[in-house]
Amino acid sequence: MAQAYPLAWPIGIPRTDAGRRGASQFKTVLDPALKNVSNSLRRFGEATGKTVSNIVISTNYTLGDRSPRDPGVAVWFLWDGSERCIAVDRYPKIEHNLQAIHHVLEARIVEARHGGLQIVRQTFTGFVALPSPEMFGDKTPGQLLGLDVPGRIYTRDEIVAAHRELAKTAHPDRAGEGGDMAVLNAARDAMLKGLPG
Q: Which of 88, 105, 97, 93 has its CA nearest to residue 16?
């Protein structure tokens, strides 16, 4: 899982340029915004019948710097067998980005109530998290997949086969951890993107 500090922003989610961050209409302060996100995550799990666990709210907030230059917030959690991340940095205050995440979750709760789990799964696919770069640790994607012969370019079929083999034990359905599966998926995707042509 991602760390709470410093901010662990998910791979593949573009950042908002500091000059493009606009003021929000939110009036909330930090503690109520945190509580809103926590309550929304709990209610989202209840509405979908799927447990939300391993919650990490990642920011650059510290007691010494309550208004960091980068106010982005990434909320990481496990849901429905996969690690998810909702990340917002469009507002200049951490509490306003948290409040935005709260509203995103509330929208998913409405979908669950009126459209059912399948609708939520469809709309929630964009939140399947590629891990932050820190989650690879000191290994390369190839090392994570056991494809690490120096100078060798692996084929698409080799990458997919290595991923499939490791997924047999890492997948949550096979007693693995959702975070482990997310890292394997990210390693596979990174290797596939690196293929020529």
A: 88
Q: Which two tokens stand for residue 22?
A: 């606009």
Q: Which helix (H) or strand (E) holds 73?
A: strand 73-79
Per-residue pLDDT at 132: 58
Cβ-based burial of 135 (10 A; exposed 0-12, middle 13-18, buried ≥19): buried
Separation between Cα atoms, residue 117 and residue 79, nearest integer Å: 12
Q: What letter represents residue 112's amino acid?
A: A
| Alpha helix ranges (H) inside the chain | 30-48, 94-115, 117-124, 141-145, 156-170, 178-193
pLDDT confidence of residue 131: 54
Q: For residues 37 and 155, what is the distance between their CA atoms, to the nearest angstrom?
A: 42
Cβ atoms < 10 Å from Cβ of 1: 22
In degrees, to the nearest 5, what angle opens at C-alpha 112 toward C-alphas 83 and 110?
A: 110
Amino acid identity of 43?
R
This prediction's pTM: 0.67
User: In the chain, count of helices (H) and strands (E)?
Assistant: 6, 3
Q: Which long-range contacts (CB under 8 A, 24 or more apart) does 144-151 make?
A: 144/183, 144/184, 144/187, 145/184, 145/187, 145/188, 145/191, 147/191
Contact 78, 124 (CB under 8 A): no
Which residues does the chain have with pLDDT short of 50?
178
pLDDT (0 to 100) of residue 188: 83
**Spatial CA neighbour of 78 closest among 42, 48, 51, 47:** 51
- 191 token code pair: 């290797």
